[in-house]
Amino acid sequence: MRKAKVLYKGEQAGILTQKDNGSFTFRYFDKWLSDSKKPAISLTFPKSQQEFSNASLFPFFYHLLPEGANKKLVCKAYKIDEDDFFGILLNIAKKDTIGAVTIEKI
Question: Mapping DSSP to helix (H, G, I), strand (E, B) and coil, where does residue 90 land?
Fold first, then answer.
């Protein structure tokens, strides 16, 4: 099992987990949910107590990944298999993302 904190504008919004069977879950932290001023991180993840699950990496997080030559460079530099999308995300999405969402390895 691998986990990462999901940050929105530098504040901890939730947790993304890859289970041992390869599936994924995302859930918001209670503190984030209880603050009405905090937005959902994405339209695909409305603020809810519900845990979101998916058999593969959620498209929202997948689209934070580099592509093409950049992906190859990242995989070579960090010695990550090109098919290990969560591994790539854990290594590059702490600072190098577009938008307000970043990922921090736990």
Answer: helix
Written as one string, the DSSP assignment of 49-88 is SSPEEESS--HHHHTTS--HHHHHHHHHHHT--TT-HHHH
What is the rounded distance in angstroms from the CA atom of residue 55 to the CA atom of residue 83?
15
Domain borders along the chain are: 2-105
Q: Provide the 10 A C-beta neighbour count for residue 84.
A: 15
pLDDT in tens, 57-88: 999 999 999 999 999 999 999 999 999 999 99
- CB atoms inside a 10 Å sphere around CB 4: 22
